[in-house]
Amino acid sequence: MTTTNRLHLPYPELADAADVPIWVRNLATLLDGITATFDWGLEINRPGAGQEGFFYYATDSGTLTFDDGTALHPIGGTAAGTITRAMLHAQLKVATGTATPADEAIRSLGTTPNTAAAGDDSRFPTVDQKAAMAGSVGAPSDTNRFVTQADPLLAYVVSGLPSVPTPGQHLLYPAHTPTHKYWHLVYLGGVWIYIGGPPIYDRVDTQESMTSNNDTWVNLATAGPQLTVPENGLYIVRHGARIATAVTHGSIYMSYKIGATEASDLDACTASSAGSDITKNKQTVVMRHEKTFNKNTLLLSRYKNDQGTGDAGPTNISHRWMELQPIYMTL
To answer: pTM score > 0.85 for this model?
Structure first.
């Protein structure tokens, strides 16, 4: 028997013994083993596995499959639903010094092999914004398209005023965390404008006495009340006390020392004497001012009277208090 050059199909020569059935059987057996079949149609009409060597093209999905007799295999892609972790692992670039799928790094297209390109697409979150979405606070200078704590137009708790604020940015400033007092601020016109929140506050309720001191500022037995200015800015200061005096004439002053600068009469609330009966000379006095202060300045209440040393009778002061509320704050 002689065979063809390409498919090696057998055919008889004139010298071969004539046996047509054997020739036909041999040719059929060989063709059955090397010939593939092909069909096409909708994917839903594709036959199941079991026809070895069968190709099927699905005209609706554009997929071509091959049947090996036990399973269908996609040609030129992966069939839907069959992508596995192992397949991804085989295609991903593994980061330097690592060997497990959990440590893989995907390279950006067009970059040098084994390196990653930095992202600059504004539609995607920055490192700070990702941190914010994970629960931490991002840099307030970032413009975040995602609704997270890093969005500069949303209020979030800070530990201090941001060094690079964004116009219209809101925040919650911790005025006094032990008492859960926060100030809601918004950044406009180069300053942090106060929107709301309780003032910080200090008080001394204990009644304490002050004798004639000839117009000299002093502390009472318990110094204060006192407050520390949290940030540079313009503030409203309010302070007051309950004063009872038995002097025959004169005035009692409550003001406050500003850092190393002694208290001033201009900032004082004042009670005047009206006779020697202390039970009748009880007054509650209050004063309000707007003043500019520097950060960390101590405001300390101070007291004096202008009665002479010859005036008789004590002065009792109780329920002393001071509060501080910003109008605006700056760095």
So the answer is: no
